[in-house]
Specification:
This protein is mainly alpha-helical. It has 13 helices and two strands; from the N terminus they run E-E-H-H-H-H-H-H-H-H-H-H-H-H-H. A hairpin with a 7-residue loop joins strand 1 and strand 2. It has a two-stranded antiparallel sheet with strand order 1-2.
């Protein structure tokens, strides 16, 4: 079933684009689950004991993927604080887990947004190259460290939550951006790529908010673009940290990856049946509180370091 929408741009005739209905289940979900099971049983020692300890991370993965694909903020909103506060993980290890998990979850969600025809594909050539450059800068020029992750994650998450709240009622009228926006969105994608390399979130929400606020892009298409860009960014960063830098906590990531595999399509699937206003409001408030918690902890650590230096 396809629904043809007409979005009017300023001074132009209405421009149509098709919004297709998305079904949640897809055969490839079973295929990838089977691949996951083979990898898990083959490469992880004591799989039964490991699953008994870490199975709740599957639910964490589902929650992170749903939030990430509904708001374009990214599942790192859930993964990073959970790993730091519940599993006592090093912030950089939590960041690496977020990269590899988002690579699966955001890609699963991105296929949903693409299937619905809600992504302005023309903009990818203006946003993908700069986001890759941004990811390289944050990975090689100034690499993430525990204090950087904690110090930036709080403020960035708060900003992302506030942007989500500010754009709640922005419907937008354009199905695409005008050519004059190309350079500006490329710059925003570059900044988002740098930020995401440091805190695992930023690319999707920053680009989506910019498109809605600066050029009144249709909200769904802005979110769809943000999800696709965060997916690409996460895949690239996951490859870098898996094969170049190392240190990915696979004993945890294997479970979050299964959760996001099945949770990734929930965002775009649920979003087509009801207004996302209430859900986005709840997630935005969670993001702000989440960011404040991380920020307060980072400030506490900094205060203890200063006190130790004073002695």
């Amino acid at each position: 079933m396809e629904e043809c929408l007409y979005e009017a741009s300023a001074g132009d005739a209405p421009a149509p684009y098709k919004r297709r209905k998305l079904t949640y289940f897809s055969p490839w979900l079973l295929v990838f689950t089977a691949v996951w099971l083979v990898v898990y049983l083959r490469f992880f020692p004591s799989p039964g004991a490991l699953a008994a300890r870490n199975w709740p991370l599957i639910l964490v993965g589902v929650a992170g993927a749903t939030i990430g694909n509904l708001t374009a903020i990214g599942g790192g909103l859930v993964f990073v604080p959970t790993m730091i506060f519940v599993y006592s993980a090093n912030p950089v290890a939590a960041l690496k887990l977020a990269f590899v998990t988002q690579a699966v979850g955001m890609t699963s969600g991105a296929t949903g947004w693409l299937s619905r025809g809600e992504v302005p594909l023309r903009l990818l050539k203006w946003t993908v190259p700069p986001l890759i450059v941004g990811a390289l800068i944050s990975s090689f020029v100034y690499r993430p460290n525990p204090m950087l992750v904690k110090g930036l994650f709080g403020p960035i998450t708060i900003i992302a939550g506030l942007l989500t709240l500010y754009t709640l009622d922005r419907k937008g009228g354009l199905p695409d951006l005008p050519p004059k926006a190309n350079v500006w969105i490329a710059l925003v994608a570059l900044i988002g790529g740098i930020i995401t390399g440091w805190v695992a979130i930023g690319e999707g929400e920053i680009v989506a908010a910019f498109c809605m606020l600066a050029y009144h892009l249709n909200a769904n298409r802005a979110l769809g673009l943000g999800v696709v860009l965060l997916s690409i960014n996460s895949i690239f960063l996951a490859l870098l940290h898996s094969f170049v830098f190392g240190g990915v906590p696979w004993q945890w990531a294997i479970f979050t990856m299964l959760g996001v595999l099945w949770g990734g399509r929930l965002g775009p699937f649920v979003g087509q049946w009801f207004s996302m206003h209430t859900a986005k409001k709840v997630f935005a408030v969670i993001a702000v509180l989440d960011g404040m918690l991380i920020l307060l902890q980072a400030l506490g650590v900094l205060a203890r370091i200063k006190a130790a230096w004073g002695h």
